[in-house]
């Protein structure tokens, strides 16, 4: 039976999984799909939260896992999840069983060096081998016992659509800035081309299903209260939602090893929001460069409306009360492994052989995978241009290009290979001489020691990838040119250590190599000049650049990267078990709301009970987003709202005020049928106690000459920002940019804020930014101040409030919540007065209570109206108006109350 959590997760996928065939693929079913769980070697109990809505059979399966989850006794554990395990699996020569060994070149294996010694590491991923169904349990147990690895076995038909169909034909090209302009490559079932094709819904479904398989394997081995989970790369971007749905407080990190494209590219992906929301279920998301992180943040802003904040150097996204950290840290090389390679016995004779082969020549080296983004042919064309433009290098300069075997196939790759072969033939034909071939092209597997030997003799390494996530080739070259510490080999390159790099500006390592010559690989002439400059540079300059690079590479190795990520993940999760968390939403819309444990939903029965026994009540209501939805086109109050307010106002024990940022004329018109309702308009600058009373201002007569200074500045930005507008109030000016381009509008708002603060520096005004607005208003005007005036006025009447309810939904209301909480301590209200400060929406707030939406607000007010006594009438509101003028709130209090703005 397919678990309900899985079907919910796929609500937004809208696909037919029946087309994929049986979920388990004929015997390879796992988790809720029927795979026999592997035996455990440790039996320390753990706790697994149950899925909402599970039936008895599903709950029994969950509990069986909880009873024997392995755990790192007495310490935390890191579960590293990736598409492939850092293990090499080979069938034994006799065909009986398997042999396994670590893959020393795997980044996942190397990252263990940066993880604390007391933290156990367990790997979850697939094997690069086809293990028959009958042997999978035995292989799983062997890998768990000997390597602490838990293998995931994907059925072939799912793996093909998952890896070749979606990862390699949708995500990988798109993340490398390739758009599917034609449908010729859209059939993911017939080709494993690295090129891109039109979006294939069934491939997306397979991607989600494959992530579900990885999730089931993690569930088998996890102890959610002790373990960290570190997910790697674009193959598993849906996994965080599966994990977060099952374990609300699980500590999850994610690192993307590929580029993340600009929002203009990423937004073409039909499942763009699903993937973004899945990643936001992590606690920390890592990128190699700021550019990749900036593109991700831009996508979150444009597509989800989530803005980031930077605090003390850390970037974070506030996502339903959880702070999702953004980590920017390029990965490094494994220094120990490279230095061990430099000491290998084979290196010396290989180095001597290459030195003899290229004696008297200047060697430029390229080491690239054979794929469509590495720009190998652009490199060859640039080298050809250099030989033609600078004839002095003819017969002297050699480009050695090592092309690692292609991992895929397809027409695009075949075309690139044909171009490369043609370029090699042409260059060697035009510039070759007896005993001299300007291009040496190596398209075979090259051993580590041979590659190190090539690095050692090369005067310059050239990387011309048109797009690459990181690319560690320049780092490896720098370490090899430095040589092994203490090495005295006769074949070692003599003289001061030096190296030169010509690198594409479109690769991840480029920003960290400040001494490299950065080029645009599409500009053949500029790349050719870069090559010439690199090999013509004075020796002392080469040495200085090398020393600078080596200091960085040797200190920012893979262990440094891993340690830094783990430390930031621990920091991001430090409050996990202190806060109140619960999950909401279906499918990829699932998210965890995390709030302070003292922040609870307002219980209607509790507030009704307190309301009934009180004798002097203050009820302060925001309008937009509180009594009417923010998304409502018709902003006028409904007949139901007007009726409820009239009933509340008619009770002699109630003082009811509408406290809003809207102008007084609009509010006066909308609530003309509520004669006893008090209204505080424009955040309290204008105030009246009933319909029959005149409007009062909160301060003495002000000079609004500053408006003539602020308005030209706002007009300037309005003309330059399409979709923006100015709202002119009697006491304030508000610039709105909600309908402008999100990125541009936000940028213009920040610049306008600085501009206005400079222009109005000597004026008695406050300039604040809010939700898609910039507002200029007089100092000392705020909802918090007007709330204090109302409560103080009730006290002046001789009967302190013994029930206070204030409700709002935006940042300006936070000032009211904070001020009222302070008032409760200053004897302005009766002792032990119940304060119901309530925000609308499940979000962090200075209020102690929340209601989900305007419907719940109206329902709660209706419940209060039902127990009110509208027959007992008095002129209490009129009495209050007489005492308000006697209040004198000092400038210091006014200034402290002026903190936030909003509607």
Automatic annotation (TrEMBL):
<dbReference type="GO" id="GO:0003825">
    <property type="term" value="F:alpha,alpha-trehalose-phosphate synthase (UDP-forming) activity"/>
</dbReference>
<dbReference type="InterPro" id="IPR003337">
    <property type="entry name" value="Trehalose_PPase"/>
</dbReference>
<dbReference type="InterPro" id="IPR001830">
    <property type="entry name" value="Glyco_trans_20"/>
</dbReference>
<keyword id="KW-0808">Transferase</keyword>
<protein>
    <recommendedName>
        <fullName>alpha,alpha-trehalose-phosphate synthase (UDP-forming)</fullName>
        <ecNumber>2.4.1.15</ecNumber>
    </recommendedName>
</protein>
<comment type="similarity">
    <text>In the N-terminal section; belongs to the glycosyltransferase 20 family.</text>
</comment>
<dbReference type="GO" id="GO:0005991">
    <property type="term" value="P:trehalose metabolic process"/>
</dbReference>
<dbReference type="InterPro" id="IPR023214">
    <property type="entry name" value="HAD_sf"/>
</dbReference>
<comment type="similarity">
    <text>In the C-terminal section; belongs to the trehalose phosphatase family.</text>
</comment>
<dbReference type="Pfam" id="PF02358">
    <property type="entry name" value="Trehalose_PPase"/>
</dbReference>
<keyword id="KW-0597">Phosphoprotein</keyword>
<dbReference type="InterPro" id="IPR006379">
    <property type="entry name" value="HAD-SF_hydro_IIB"/>
</dbReference>
<dbReference type="Pfam" id="PF00982">
    <property type="entry name" value="Glyco_transf_20"/>
</dbReference>
<keyword id="KW-0328">Glycosyltransferase</keyword>
<feature type="compositionally biased region" description="Polar residues">
    <location>
        <begin position="60"/>
        <end position="69"/>
    </location>
</feature>
<dbReference type="InterPro" id="IPR036412">
    <property type="entry name" value="HAD-like_sf"/>
</dbReference>
<feature type="region of interest" description="Disordered">
    <location>
        <begin position="47"/>
        <end position="69"/>
    </location>
</feature>
């Amino acid at each position: 039976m397919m678990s309900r959590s899985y079907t919910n997760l796929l609500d937004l996928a809208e696909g037919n999984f029946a087309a994929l065939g049986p979920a388990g693929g004929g015997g390879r079913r796992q988790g809720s799909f029927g795979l026999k769980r592997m035996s455990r070697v440790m039996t320390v109990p753990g706790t697994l939260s149950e899925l909402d809505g599970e039936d008895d059979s599903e709950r029994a399966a969950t509990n069986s896992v909880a009873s024997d989850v392995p755990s790192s006794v007495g310490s935390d554990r890191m579960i590293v999840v990736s598409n492939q395990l850092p293990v090499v699996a080979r069938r034994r020569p006799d065909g009986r069983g398997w042999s396994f060994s670590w893959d020393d070149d795997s980044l996942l294996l190397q990252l263990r060096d940066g993880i604390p010694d007391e933290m156990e590491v367990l790997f979850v991923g697939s094997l690069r081998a086809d293990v028959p169904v009958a042997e999978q349990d035995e292989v799983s147990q062997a890998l768990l016992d000997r390597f602490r690895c838990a293998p995931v076995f994907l059925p072939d038909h799912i793996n093909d659509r998952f890896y070749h169909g979606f990862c390699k034909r949708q995500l990988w090209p798109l993340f490398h800035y390739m758009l599917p302009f034609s449908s010729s490559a859209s059939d993911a079932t017939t080709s494993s081309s690295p090129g891109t094709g039109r979006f294939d819904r069934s491939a997306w479904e397979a991607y989600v299903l494959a992530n579900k398989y990885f999730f089931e394997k993690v569930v088998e081995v996890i102890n959610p209260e002790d373990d960290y989970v570190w997910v790697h790369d674009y193959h598993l971007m849906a996994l965080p939602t599966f994990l977060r749905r099952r374990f609300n407080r699980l500590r999850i990190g994610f690192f993307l090893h590929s580029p993340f494209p600009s929002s203009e590219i990423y937004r073409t992906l039909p499942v763009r929001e699903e993937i973004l929301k899945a990643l936001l279920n992590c606690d920390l998301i890592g990128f190699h460069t700021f550019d990749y992180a900036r593109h991700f943040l831009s996508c979150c802003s444009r597509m989800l409306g989530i803005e980031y904040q930077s605090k003390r150097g850390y970037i974070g996204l506030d996502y339903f009360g959880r702070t999702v950290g953004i980590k920017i840290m390029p990965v490094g090389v494994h220094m120990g492994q490279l230095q061990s390679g430099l000491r290998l016995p084979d290196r010396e004779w290989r180095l001597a052989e290459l030195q003899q082969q290229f004696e008297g020549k200047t060697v430029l080296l390229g080491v690239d995978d054979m794929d469509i983004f590495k720009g190998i042919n652009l490199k060859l064309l640039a080298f050809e241009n250099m030989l033609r433009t600078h004839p002095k290098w003819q017969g002297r300069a050699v480009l050695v290009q090592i092309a690692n075997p292609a991992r895929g196939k397809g027409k695009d790759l075949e075309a690139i290979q044909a171009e490369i072969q043609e370029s090699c033939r042409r260059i060697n034909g035009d510039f070759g001489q007896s005993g001299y071939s300007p291009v040496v092209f190596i398209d075979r597997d090259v051993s580590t020691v041979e590659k190190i030997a090539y690095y050692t003799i090369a005067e310059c390494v050239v990387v011309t990838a048109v797009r690459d996530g990181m690319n560690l080739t320049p780092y490896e070259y720098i370490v090899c040119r430095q040589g092994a510490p203490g090495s005295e080999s006769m074949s070692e390159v003599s003289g001061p250590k030096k190296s030169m790099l010509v690198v594409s500006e479109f690769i991840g390592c480029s920003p960290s190599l400040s001494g490299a010559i950065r080029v645009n690989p599409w500009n053949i002439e500029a790349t050719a000049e870069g090559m010439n400059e690199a090999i013509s540079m004075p020796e002392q300059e080469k040495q200085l650049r090398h020393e600078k690079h080596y200091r960085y590479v040797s200190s920012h190795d893979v262990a440094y990267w891993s340690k830094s990520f783990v430390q930031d993940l621990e920091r991001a999760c430090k409050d996990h078990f202190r806060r109140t968390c619960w999950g909401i939403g279906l499918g990829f819309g699932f998210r965890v709301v995390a709030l302070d444990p003292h922040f609870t939903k307002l219980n209607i029965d509790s507030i009704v009970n307190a309301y009934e026994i009180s004798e002097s009540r203050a009820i302060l209501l925001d309008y937009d987003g509180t009594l009417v939805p923010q998304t409502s086109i018709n902003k006028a109050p409904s007949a139901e709202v007007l009726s409820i307010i009239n009933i509340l106002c008619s009770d002699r024990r109630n003082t009811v005020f509408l406290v809003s940022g809207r102008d007084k004329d609009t509010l006066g018109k909308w609530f003309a049928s509520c004669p006893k309702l008090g209204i505080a308009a424009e955040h309290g600058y204008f105030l009246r106690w009933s319909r029959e009373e005149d409007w009062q201002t909160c301060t003495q007569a002000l000079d609004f000459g500053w408006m003539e200074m602020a308005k030209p500045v706002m007009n300037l930005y309005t003309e330059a920002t399409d979709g923006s507008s100015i709202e002119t109030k009697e006491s304030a000016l508000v610039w709105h940019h909600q309908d402008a381009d999100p990125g541009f509008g936000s940028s213009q708002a920040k610049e306008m804020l600085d501009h206005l603060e400079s222009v109005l520096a000597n004026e008695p005004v406050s300039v604040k930014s809010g939700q898609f607005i910039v507002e200029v208003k007089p100092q000392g005007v705020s909802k918090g101040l007007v709330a204090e005036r109302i409560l103080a006025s009730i006290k002046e009447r001789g009967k302190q409030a013994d029930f206070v309810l204030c409700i709002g939904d935006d940042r300006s209301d936070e000032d009211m919540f904070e001020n009222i909480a302070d008032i409760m301590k200053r004897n302005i209200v009766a002792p032990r007065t119940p304060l119901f400060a309530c925000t609308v929406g499940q979000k962090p707030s200075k209020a102690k209570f929340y209601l989900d939406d305007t419907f719940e607000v109206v329902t709660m007010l209706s419940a209060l109206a039902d127990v009110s006594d509208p027959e007992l009438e008095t002129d209490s509101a009129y009495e209050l108006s007489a005492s308000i003028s006697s209040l004198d709130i000092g400038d210091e209090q006014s200034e402290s109350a002026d903190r936030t703005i909003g509607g």
